[in-house]
Amino acid sequence: MGPRAGSPESRREAEALRREVPAPILGHYDRLVTRGKKAVAYVRHGVCTGCRMQLPSGLYAKLLRDDDVCVCDNCARYLVVAPETPPPPAAKPAPAPKRAPRKRSPAARKKTVAVSA
Question: Quick one: pLDDT at residue 39?
Answer without folding.
Answer: 93
